[in-house]
Amino acid sequence: MKIKGIFLSLLLTVAAITPSGALDRWLAREDGGQPGAFLRYGAGARAFGMGKTFVGVADDASTVYWNPAGLGQIARREVTALYATLYEETNYSFIGYAHPLAGSGTIGAAVISLDSKGFQLRDAFNDEMGEGSLSEMAGIVSFGKALIVKDDQERLSAGASIKVVRQVVDSYSAMGYGADMGVLGRIGDHMTLGMSVQNIIAPKLKLSQATDEYPLSVTLGMGYRLLDNRLMLALDVNKTMYREYTFHVGGEYTLMEMLSFRAGIDETELSCGIGFTYKGYSLDYAFAFHDAWQGHDGLGESHRIGLTKKF
Question: What digits encode the pLDDT tens for the residues 196-209?
Answer without folding.
Answer: 999 999 999 887 77
